[in-house]
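Worked example (supplementary).
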Amino acid sequence: VNAVATNYYQSVIGATEVFLGPAAKRFVDRQIDFHLSKDPETINRQDVIRLRDSLGVALGLLVDDKRIVDDAVHRFDDIIKK
Amino acid sequence: MATTKPPAEHKLVTALPYVGVFILWLSSLILSLQQTNEAALKQYDLTESSLHTIQIILSFPALFIWVTLLYAFLSFYRYARQIAGSPDSPGFKYIAWGLGALLSSFILTNFLRQIRGLLAENSANPDSIDNTFIILTNYVSVVAAFLAYLWIYKGSRSLLASIKVNLTLPKNMFRFVIPFAVLAAVYLTFIFINPERRISTHENINPTYALPDLLILITVAIPYLVAWWFAILALIGLYRYKKLSTGIIYKSLFDRLLKGLTALISLTIFLQLLTQFTAFLAQSGLNSILGIITVLYIVLVGAFIAVGRAAQQLNKIETFKL
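After joint prediction of all chains, the assembly is encoded as:
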């Protein structure tokens, strides 16, 4: 179970890095702590859905480019589907 | 969006450095108003009150420069603190220190000029006071420039190290060496064609360096040139970091920061060069130089604001809580 969760966590960081680069891990860790209050290494599929929603809104506020936001959401959808 | 809202006391702490800078500016203005400036009163046929009005008006650009540079410095510093513990944090901290050194230089040299004027007016040997303070002011400027660009250079190296890249010189290095050689040649020529460099022959013009030629070369010119070379290397490193780092949004925010820093570094170098020769150039009939310097200061204020805003944008990523 832990291996799967770690996989989710690494996939989420990987997807976020495409947009936030070196700030991605810090960003994801903070969102997990704030929304899910759990160890990042233990996140599950449901958690990824919540993170996708919050990341989508956050990116929308950081950049005025809908394509970037859609791309990010799409990458998270891929993780969820996996 | 819910970036955590700062409480009232946090706002007060945030405002404190700005209040400090305002008090410093006010003190510097009071020092300048303490001077009788008899030579200026005679030369321009002014009353004391009209001279004071001019002094007050002319002191405002310094306030804008100090406040906006403080804003850039604090924005960088807060970002570095926000990401403390991350591999890229030391790089941003070094750059913040570099900006802090520039700010200290602006403030200190301004104070030294005011103190010099005040002491010289009340001294039996004003030339000796003038020369001592001119040497001191030049050394403060050169040390601050050296530290500022060295720290920014160390910052760029540290940022590259955070993505496991070394700062190596680009293959097309001649693109940087040739303009730098031109800059050095122009600078050295200006120094040694300036007849006022050691002793002033005019009553109203102070010597530029008040030092023997060898000391001007070794203790002012060469350190400035080394500092400016560090600045060029710093920009090469920062552009490399931007190119190699990941993150579409991070890169776009860093790009804004980099454009501001490029303008800031280029303009401060140009101003350090020009301000050393203001009196000489004005006396040579090149009064338009003073206008150019004023325009450069205005653009510099814009660069400080741009750098500060970009650092705050990066900080936004770090404080995001939805």
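Two points are worth noting when inspecting this output. Chain B has a mean pLDDT of 88. The longest helix of chain B spans residues 126-162.
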